[in-house]
């Protein structure tokens, strides 16, 4: 039988893996994962990302062996790795999932397609999410996405036949982080990769942790347990989106049946899972934006905003923001939490970007790169779309300027999160946590926190910067040139469930 090669990328699982199933049905099959230095050592990558991948690969290799398949591990540049492997195995087809990642992967995939065409090798790419390649009109996107999600997740093939040449070829080794020149933060509490951990995480959310999801997700205190925490598993494909959608729907059906039968339920369950379903759809919605316009990794969605912040980048502000030394406790706690854990809840992510964009008036590009390295669940399609939205440069989204002071009183009034990650403020009373710089000298001495020495003064004045940024961004948004450009952005990227009426 003809040899089939399954190229694993950000789809590190065996369940609901369509390329694996179709390749196994087409002939003898072998798997491949390539450590690509150009991706691993890129500006948006961190050692924690590679560690998560390695954890996932260990389980993937074991799982594939149960079905009779081998996972080959290689280090190098594509398609050069494929060229050597083709000489060893003589495969006739490459099976893979479509990928919407950064520009490096986009250019890599173009090289692979050109190589496959030259070698007369089939390169079959299949959809993984609700992202639609070569989408002509955004009006149809939601329908296509929902149709894909309705399809039943598929099980791995019961048996995979290994090509004879793959039985003796060197399988390759899991590559340690030290093998690459990769940036590394001092992580302490990071989620562990792998399909098994992903399944456990989903199960615990659907059965116990998700009961108050709708309210828990706003606060960094409750969000750590109340949010699904599935984002890194989705980013690296330890679970398919379709699997999550189906299991969530099954859980909702189960809860409704229990309620119908008279079994007492927590009243928050159904609303919480309904909110979760909406966010699963938003995942694909934002990734579609990058698929349709890859340039948003580098350029403003709305080019009418070009030059708004680029020439005013304050490096000292940026450094303070990066290291959690802004003098605003919630901002600093969130940044330090990311350094240690690689995760914070969505609202706090939005607040971090808002503070950088409005209070510090920083262009979004450098903060985006820094956060990409920090987020364990970094997904470029979501990342750059969200950061530009929170920075106010899309022209089609509501401008939201978060108050870092109000977020303390709203989301962490007892200082649980802040004291955990900003220990300098451990003995500061709750009433002073939002603005510790307003303590008098006697209070600073009494509570063991001297402002300007133990903890920094605010690097900017909140009220002054808030007003200046609000006035400036709204004035720019009202310009005729901006409004005209915004209409074009909406036509291409706007969220809509019904076809847009065009003039």
Task: Report on the architecture of this protein.
With 503 residues, the chain is mainly α. The chain has 3 domains: 3-128, HUPs (Rossmann fold), CATH 3.40.50; 195-292, Alpha Horseshoe (Serine Threonine Protein Phosphatase 5, Tetratricopeptide repeat); 296-493, DNA Cyclobutane Dipyrimidine Photolyase, subunit A, domain 3. 50% of the residues lie in helices and 6% in strands. The chain has 22 helices and 5 strands. Helix 1 links the parallel strand 1 (3-8) and strand 2 (28-35). The longest helix is centred in the middle third of the chain and has 24 residues, at 269-292. The model has no long low-confidence stretch (mean pLDDT 96).
Tags for this model:
mainly alpha, 503 residues, DNA Cyclobutane Dipyrimidine Photolyase, subunit A, domain 3, 3 domains, globular, Serine Threonine Protein Phosphatase 5, Tetratricopeptide repeat, Rossmann fold
- Range of strand content: 5-15%
| Shape verdict | globular
Find the CATH superfamily of the largest domain: DNA Cyclobutane Dipyrimidine Photolyase, subunit A, domain 3
What's the number of helices?
22
Number of domains: 3
Q: Give the strand line-up of the largest sheet.
A: 3-2-1-4-5
SS elements, strand count: 5
Order of helices and strands: EHEHHEHEHEHHHHHHHHHHHHHHHHH
Distance between the termini: 56 Å
Mean pLDDT, all residues: 96
Portion of residues within helices? 40-55%
Structural class: mainly alpha
Largest sheet: 5 strands, parallel
Top-tier CATH class of the largest domain:
Mainly Alpha
CATH level 3 topology of the largest domain: DNA Cyclobutane Dipyrimidine Photolyase, subunit A, domain 3
Calculate Rg over CA atoms. 24 Å
Architecture of the largest domain in CATH? Orthogonal Bundle
- Contiguous uncertain segments of 5+ residues: none
């Amino acid at each position: 039988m003809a040899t089939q090669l399954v190229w694993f990328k950000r789809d590190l699982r065996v369940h609901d893996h369509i390329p694996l199933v179709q390749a196994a049905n087409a002939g003898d099959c072998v798997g491949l994962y390539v450590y690509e230095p150009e991706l691993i050592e890129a500006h948006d990558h961190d050692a924690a990302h590679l560690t998560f991948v390695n954890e996932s690969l260990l389980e993937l290799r074991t799982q594939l062996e149960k079905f009779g398949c081998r996972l080959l591990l290689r280090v190098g540049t594509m398609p050069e790795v494929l060229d050597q492997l083709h000489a060893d195995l003589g495969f006739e087809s490459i099976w893979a999932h479509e990928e919407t990642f950064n520009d490096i992967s986009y250019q890599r995939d173009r090289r692979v397609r050109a190589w496959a065409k030259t070698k007369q090798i089939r390169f079959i790419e299949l959809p993984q999410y609700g992202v639609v390649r070569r989408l002509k009109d955004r009006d149809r996107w939601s329908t296509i996405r929902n149709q894909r999600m309705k399809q039943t997740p598929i099980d791995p093939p019961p048996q995979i036949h290994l090509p004879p040449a793959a039985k003796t070829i060197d399988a390759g080794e899991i590559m340690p982080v030290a093998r690459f020149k990769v940036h590394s933060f001092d992580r302490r509490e990071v989620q562990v990769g792998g399909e098994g951990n992903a399944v456990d995480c989903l199960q615990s959310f659907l059965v116990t942790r998700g009961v108050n999801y709708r309210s828990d997700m706003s606060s960094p205190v409750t969000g750590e347990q109340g949010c699904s925490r599935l984002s890194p598993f989705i980013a690296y494909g330890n679970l398919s989106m379709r699997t999550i959608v189906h299991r969530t729907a099954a859980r909702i059906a189960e809860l409704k049946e229990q309620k119908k039968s008279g079994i007492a339920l927590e009243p928050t369950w159904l609303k919480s899972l309904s909110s979760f379903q909406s966010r699963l759809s938003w995942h694909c919605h934002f990734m579609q934006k990058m698929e349709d316009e890859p340039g948003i990794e580098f350029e403003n969605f709305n080019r009418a905003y070009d030059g708004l912040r680029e020439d005013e980048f304050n490096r000292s502000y940026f450094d303070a923001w990066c290291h959690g030394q802004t003098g605003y406790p919630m901002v600093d706690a969130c940044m330090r939490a990311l350094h240690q854990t690689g995760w914070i809840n969505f609202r706090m992510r939005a607040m971090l970007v808002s503070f950088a964009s409005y209070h510090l008036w920083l262009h979004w590009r450098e903060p985006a790169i820094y956060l990409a390295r920090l987020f364990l669940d970094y997904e470029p399609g979501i990342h750059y779309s969200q950061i530009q939205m929170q920075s106010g440069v899309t022209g089609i989204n509501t401008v939201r300027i978060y108050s870092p002071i109000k977020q303390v009183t709203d989301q962490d009034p007892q200082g649980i999160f802040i004291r955990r990650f900003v220990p300098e403020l451990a003995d500061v009373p709750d009433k002073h946590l939002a603005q510790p710089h307003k303590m008098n000298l006697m209070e600073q001495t009494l509570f063991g926190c001297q402002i300007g020495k133990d903890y920094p003064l605010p690097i900017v004045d909140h009220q002054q910067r808030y007003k200046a940024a609000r006035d400036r961004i709204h004035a720019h948004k009202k310009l005729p040139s901006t409004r005209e450009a915004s209409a074009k952005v909406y036509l291409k990227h706007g969220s809509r469930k019904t076809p847009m009426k065009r003039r």
